[in-house]
Design a protein that fits this description.
Blueprint: H1 2-16, E1 53-58, E2 68-70, E3 73-80, E4 82-85, E5 88-90, E6 96-103, E7 109-115, H2 129-132, E8 140-141, E9 145-149, E10 155-159, E11 164-168, E12 186-188, E13 191-196, H3 197-200, E14 202-207, E15 213-218, E16 230-232, E17 239-244, E18 247-251, E19 258-262, E20 276-278, E21 281-286, E22 291-296, E23 301-302, H4 304-307, E24 308-313, E25 322-324, E26 327-332, E27 335-340, E28 346-351, E29 393-395, E30 398-402, E31 408-412, E32 419-423, E33 437-439, E34 442-446, E35 450-454
Parallel strand pairs: 19-23
Antiparallel strand pairs: 1-35, 2-3, 3-6, 4-5, 6-7, 8-9, 9-10, 10-11, 12-13, 13-14, 14-15, 16-17, 17-18, 18-19, 20-21, 21-22, 22-24, 25-26, 26-27, 27-28, 29-30, 30-31, 31-32, 33-34, 34-35
Length: 459
């Protein structure tokens, strides 16, 4: 009876809630995970505390997840009570998760759902969790519902008014690294796909209407996989592609069965960078080895001999590059990179220099990933070398790349290096791990302190 009631509530919400538009940003990295805005509206190049800031909203806690935009609402996840900062760790039993809904026009918080966690969580210690926290997975929406993944605390479905529809556990384990959860859920044809590598060494396919498990692919090879899968060839031959250590896999998104694989991939024990799609090819890269491989999609079983298009040097270790008009772009440790997507050949590699990159800048300017040598302050714990978590996004022919310390480089999305602007919210001293979202010419990005709406404002 409870199952039937859940299905009825989900079906009614389909009829009653119709707020989504074609330009909505419904998941991590936007339309099909491409990182490219579908809008043809102009976006601003320069912004800051006093320039092109539509609104900013104080959040109930930090997080590395990105915002998603559904119609007139913006959604983001946070955590509080434990591990908010290095000098305010607190007690694990006080940990809470938050799902926050913000009015897109005003920035007012419409609702804030507090989720009690499954405990024990991975501790706030070492080189993993302190880098990104306990709200790192970006929600996904079908335009009428919101699906949130909180790692060991499970997957939760809400309607857009914040009513919980169902909740499902996808494992409560930890791998040996204890780095926490990071991969974001995606949707395909009514199936919610969750990479629960840290929780269960598995990828789940759940019925989006009920949370019922439709399929589960479990293997030890998924133990250190923090990237978000993508759907390649979504119409003709849908393939759920994921990068795993030393290999690239394509699963059938309807049943989780392996369709094809190559025995060349990221030469590293763990993979954080998501697959990049470029036409009929998919590109895997990252890891400490910084290698890359491009693979033609399709085929059956082992297609290594016939489907590997090129092998080369990666332009990103953790974040996901963006593919645009035959080129791949990424900013890695202060270096702007562009490579030919068809061949892997380097087009440019330029160190970003701007008026804000100076010894006079505040200490946060020199966080790993900003391309500036960082000297630890007295008594400060030395960084483990983790740089940016924010991936580049393209809108209006411009690349937007946030750094951990809050700078946003804006570059021309073309194979000739051109830095258009370097922006920062000087009043916000917290970390920026979020990948920005775009909708109708506005950019939405969160820091550990605030959610921002950036766009043209009246003088």
């Amino acid at each position: 009876m409870q199952f039937s009631t859940t299905i009825l509530a989900f079906s009614l919400s389909l009829l009653l809630v119709q707020t989504s538009t074609g330009e909505d940003w419904l998941r991590f990295r936007g339309p099909n995970g491409s990182g490219i805005s579908s809008s043809n509206k102009k976006t601003v190049t320069s912004f800051g505390d006093e320039e092109n800031l539509v609104w900013k909203t104080k959040l109930p806690g930090p997080g590395a997840s990105s915002p998603v935009v559904v119609g007139d609402k913006v959604f983001v996840t946070c955590y509080s009570g434990y591990g908010e900062t290095n000098d305010k760790v607190g007690k694990m039993e006080n940990l809470k998760r938050h799902v926050v809904c913000v009015d897109r026009k005003t920035g007012n918080i419409l609702w804030n759902k507090i989720v009690d966690p499954y405990l024990p969580e991975d501790k706030y210690e070492g080189m993993g969790v302190p880098q990104h926290g306990y709200a790192s997975s970006t929600p996904v929406s079908d335009g009428q519902h919101l699906f949130v993944f909180f790692g060991k605390s499970g997957v939760i479905a809400y309607d857009l008014d914040g009513n919980e529809l169902w909740k499902k556990s996808v494992g409560t384990s930890s791998n040996e690294k204890k780095w926490g959860s990071a991969a974001s859920p995606i949707l395909f044809d009514g199936i919610l796909i969750v990479n629960a590598s840290d929780e269960d060494q598995a990828i789940y396919g759940l019925d989006a209407s009920s949370g019922k498990e439709l399929w589960k692919t479990k293997t030890k090879s998924l133990a250190n996989v923090w990237n978000t899968p993508v759907i390649a060839s979504p119409e003709s031959n849908p393939q759920l592609v994921v990068s795993v250590p030393d290999e690239v896999w394509a699963l059938n998104p309807r049943n989780g069965k392996l369709k094809w694989y190559v025995t060349k991939g990221v030469d590293a024990p763990s993979v954080s960078t998501s697959i990049v799609m470029d036409g009929e090819n998919v590109i895997a890269m990252g890891g400490r080895s910084l290698n890359a491989v491009a693979v033609k999609t399709g085929g059956k079983a082992d297609v290594t001999d016939n489907h590997v298009v090129w092998e080369g040097r990666a332009i990103s270790a953790i974040t996901t590059p963006v593919s645009y008009q035959g080129h791949l772009y990424a900013v890695n440790r202060g270096i702007a990179n562009c490579i030919d997507a068809a061949t892997g050949q380097a087009i440019y590699k330029e160190r970003i220099q701007s008026s804000q990159d100076s010894l006079a800048a505040r200490p946060q300017d020199s966080q790993p990933g900003d391309g500036v040598l960082r000297i630890p302050l007295p008594g400060e714990r030395r960084s483990h070398g983790v740089g940016n978590y924010s991936s580049p996004v393209i809108a209006d022919g411009k690349i937007y790349q946030f750094t951990k310390s809050g700078k946003c480089y804006v570059l021309a999305a073309k194979p000739d290096y051109e830095l258009l602007a370097t922006n920062r919210f000087e009043s916000d001293k917290s970390n920026f791990h979020s990948t920005p979202a775009f909708c109708e010419g506005q950019m939405f990005v969160r820091s550990n302190n605030y959610l921002y709406c950036i766009g043209e404002t009246a003088e």
